[in-house]
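Practice problem: predict the structure.
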Amino acid sequence: MIARIKPIAPSQSKSPASVPRLAEMSGSILLYMIGLLVDLALNPNLAAGWYASGRIRGYLGEPDLAIEHLERATRLSPLDMQTARLQSATAFAHFLAGRYDDASSWAQRALQVRPSYPSAIRLAAASSALAGRPEEARQAVERLRQVDPALRVSNLKNRLPLRRPDDLTRYQEGLRMAGLPEQ
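Answer:
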């Protein structure tokens, strides 16, 4: 199977944003992860690869490994222009691990860098709600509805290819508690 996968050459791996998006669109995260592991074996200093691996490990329900990979990406590229994405992905991994205070803190860091980043705002809303801070959660949902007016609790599943059903359920519940409309 690996022989049929064409690894991404380091010179082609320029946009960490496209890596998880590609995995989402391909519908085969596990297959993509195999190719990514080959890439990282060929170039263990590929920050974009570690970022992508961190995101995908989160989707696969491995939040602690996701955090390790995201930390490595940050060490390899500490001044990366995609800092908000790394911080938001770290927030996401903490959220998946049930560490809502940490998730909220990382989401706030991402929002300091990129105030209108929908992923970070979603995480700030859901994690604040589940951490017992309803006013913070409500304010985040107000902001979220300005930057992503089409988002509803019911269509969140179309944006996140989460492998563990409980992860989606908790995310939806957090956003519901924060005040995001169901439909």
